[in-house]
Structure formats: structure tokens, C-alpha cells
Amino acid sequence: MLSALVSRVQDFVAAKAQDALLAVLRAGPVPQHVAFVMDGNRRYARRQHKVVWEGHADGFEALRRTLEICMRLGVRCVSVYAFAIENFKRSQDEVDALMSLAEDKLTEMCKHGELLDRHGIRLNVLGRKDLLPPRVQDVVRRAEHMTRHNDRAVLNLCMPFASRDDIATAVAASVSDALASDAPHITEAAVAAHIATAAAGSPPVDVLVRTSGVRRLSDFLTWQTCEDAQIQFSPKYWPDFGLWDFVPVLLDYQRKVWAAPVDA
Amino acid sequence: MSWLASFILSLFHAVYYVFNAVSTFRASLARPPNPLAAKRKQVPTHLALLLNNNSAAVDEAFECQLLDNVQEAISWCRAAGVQQLTVYDREGILYKSSYELRSRIYNATEGNDTREVEAEVQYPLTPPPSDDSSSSSRSLSPEYSTQPKLHVTTVSVSPKTRTRQTNENEGVKRRKTDVGSMSPERPFTLHIASRNSGKPAVAELATSLKHSRPVSQNGKSTLSIADIQSVLEGEHGLPPPDLMIIHRTTEHTYPKHVLELYGFPPWQLSLTEFYYTVYPTSWNASWSSASQKPHSYIPISEIDICRALDQFSGAEMRLGK
Fold this sequence. Notes:
The complex is a heterodimer of chains A (264) and B (321).
Chain A (H helix, E strand, L loop, with lengths): L1 H25 L6 E5 L3 H7 L4 H22 L3 E5 L10 H18 L5 H4 L2 E6 L7 H13 L6 E6 L4 H19 L6 H5 L3 H4 L7 E4 L11 H4 L4 E4 L9 H17 L5
Parallel strand pairs in A: 1-2, 1-5, 2-4, 3-4, 5-6
Chain B lengths: L1 H27 L17 E7 L7 H21 L3 E5 L4 H4 L1 H15 L4 E6 L30 E7 L28 E6 L5 H14 L12 H8 L10 E6 L24 E3 L5 H8 L13 H12 L8
Parallel strand pairs in B: 1-2, 1-6, 2-5, 6-7
Antiparallel strand pairs in B: 3-4, 4-5
């Protein structure tokens, strides 16, 4: 009984400390759009002596936790690399497990009172949805429909996604537009308007965070991050990523904003 | 209470500054990397060097030092077994100096080697004048295609032999290499790029595709990744680098370097590994040296290249699996 009480007190103190930390960080500039490459679920599972799908389930909890933090900080748009088109090359068992996880969690997230509803988050699923199993496509359609009126924040769930596919799709769409309007030239802005995140109404990416220590974009949001987005690499595996790992990312962003030259 | 939160946030930033300064000092004491010619598990075939220049610092002397440094980087890359080097700066200083770079490469290799060396330059194509009076660009014959301006200059260096067969249409002349793997006589390719080689080049490609591609019956353009790849990474484009070193050529004003990509072509970034010094020793130098002139050119060094190669050697590529 005493240990249960101590545990409750510890949880209470930790929650209050987190509230205080978020209030302090909110006093400075906060990025409008943060992207995450949620890498390291499998290596995390191996280190914890768990099976791979448990690593992915723990990864989903980390997503829920990180999304909560972003919302409480005032980040308006979060994009996550949930599944790469290349990931279909994984074993059929793992792909099936990931699709089942996506189906379960999407349904859960959109329920009344759950995370998306509580924070007024609209869900966009970006990428080649036609490659998803039909039952997952149904769940995606329902989830997007249920959250379509939410207007406080946006979650872009990129699955299955690849930037080269995104750029090729944008080029094709811009060519179709130009053919229809008989425009002689296609501008960079015309192509950019068809890039998935822009087409979904998201602001430019301010910060991209990749976990697990890998220093690559792995074909995620290359168009969106190649200009002036800050790209941060964390050595932590995604299921271990928490608020304290995010603090230096936010401090670096705030420093950039404060150091930027003021427009005349 | 917001003033209290702001005050505490300032304290956070002060503590963070001290933490980064200490980390930068510790980084300057790190053990040296393996030498250039050391045997590594993997060596990048194509290395990119992204040079972040402070535009306020750029003058003629700065540009000269920049070109000297690129020339040094070429020799280091060749010694390490790298076969292609891309040098990139956002503003296009290097791109505008392509001719001079090519001359320097030619003169440097001619002086060091008794064999003749050719440095062949592939300049971006000038598209033929389009017929704007035509009512529909789709009336152009299938044989006509407008080459998009990709704004990449390529300099190929390959030694000649007496038995070489020359094909004037080839962009790169090849010879059978019979020397050891560290020989600087192997063919080497330098690509020179700027921001225009990226998103603007994609837009140019889209424009040329509009004029040359067939359309489906519903008027939509049919296009595959392979179609785009063949052009953007082709003979007049830029192949994707395996490893990119991001180097700031003027002093860091803060003891931490956060990665940004300064407009580098996005198509080519898909699988590129990034190397940059998180805790820049150049910050130490500017802080400790009172005589350091502001905006002096800070060259990339052989040690930076070696550290980058060491990091790449330890990297694991899973390619989605």
C-alpha cells in the first residue's frame, strides 16, 4: 500500500514537472511544423528481448506521447513517417502485423475523447494509400472523415510514403495542370503546390527529427526539408524518445528564430 | 507569470550554451581519425561537399580560397578512393567558376603525371528555341524533345593511353585501369551544382515533359519515377551522393552546428548519409583567437574528410527491410 502511494506521488510530481517544463518552453518560439522519422522500433525490441511487433506497439505509444507533447507546446502540424513504400520488402509477417497495428490504432485514435478528438487534430494520411490492404484503406477513409472538422492541429500520417514518389506525383500533376491551362512554363511553385504536405494545407517543415542515430532522410520529406528546415538526429530508439530528448531540439529552434535577421 | 517562464527559459538557454561550449571543447580533444588511405569497410563512390558560405564574407579573395580548397578536396577524395565528388554552394559561386575549376584540375594533373590527362567538361545543354507560335506543344514530333536545363556542370578526368579508343559522342572517356585501388590515375568525376540544380531543375524537367510526353485519354500526364530518375540523375544531371559533408566556410557564432541543407537538390538526397561536426572546432578558434579576422575563409580539412569517411564506414543500410 505504501509503495502504491509513493508511486502515485512520484507520478504526480513527474506530471507537474512536465507541465512546468512545457510552460517554460512555450514562453519562446515554437515550430509550426515538426516531422518525425520514427526509427528504431525493431532494434529497441531486440534490445528489450521482445518480438518485433511489440517494438512497433511501443513505438505507437511513443507517437501518442510525442503528439501529446507537441499539442501542449502549441505545434500546429506534426508529420510522421509511419511506413515507407520500401518497407513492403520486409517479411510478410511483419508487414501484416504493421497493417493490423495501423488498423487498430487508427480506429482507437479517432474515437470520441481520444487524442485526436481531445486536441482537435485533423488526420491526413499521405502517400500511396492505394498500396494499403483494402480493410486498412477503409479505416483510413473513416478516420480522415471523422476528424475532417477538427481545426486546431494536423497530423500527417505518411504511409506508405516515399519522397521520390511524392515528387514524381507532383511533377505529373503540374504537367497535367499546365496542359489543361496551356501554360508555356511550369514554375517551381507550381510543382511545390502538388507536394503532398502542401497539397494537404500544411505549413513548411521547420524541424525534422530522426531517431535511432541514423543520419539519413531515407526518402522522407526531402523536398520539404532541403531548404531551411533544421534536421536533428537523436541517438535514442523511437520507443525511448521523450520530452527531455525533444528539449534540445526546441532550444535549437528558438535560438535560430531569435538569431534570424529582422526584416526591414 | 509569463515573465517568470521567460526568465526560466533564458536560464535554460544559458545552461544549454555552457553545455554546448564544453562539448565543443571536448570534441576538439577527440582522437584523430583514420588516415585518408586507410582500409575502410566501405568507401563512398560519390561524395558531396556542401559549402555553406556567409554571403557577407564573399569577395574575390574568399572565392580564390574557396577554389583552392575545392582543389585540395579533389586530391583527398582521389587518394581515398572516392570516384565522384559533387561540390555545392547555394549561391552558385562554384558553378560560375566552373571553367576556372576545370583549368585548375587540368593543370594540376598535367603537372603531377607524365601521362596526358584530359579534363572533359559537360556544360548544361541550351535547349533549342521552342516554337511558341505552335498552338499545341503536343503537335511536336516524337523525335523532338526539349532538353531541360539542369544547371549541373560535370568535369570528367581520365588519363589517356596509346590503346584508347575515342568516341567523340561519349561524355566520359574510359580506360582500363590496371593500377592499384589508391591510384590517382583512376577516372574521377567532379559535379558542380547550386540551388538551381535542385527544385528549379525539377520545374524545368516538368516543362520539358509537358512538351514531349504522351498523355493519357483523360488528359493526365503519365509519369514514372524511372522517367524522372533517368533525366535528373543522367548524363547532364546529378547522381545521388552516398555521403555528404556539410561544411560552414565562416566561423560559427555558437558552439553547436545544427544541420540544414541550403537548397541541395531534393531528388538526390533520398539515401545520402550526412556528416557534419555537431560541435565545431572553428567556434573554439574564433573565440580563442583575438586576431581572427571576421568572415575569414575556414577551409574544409583532410581531417574532416577522414572523419566523414570513418562515419560512413560504420553506417548500416537496410533499404526499407
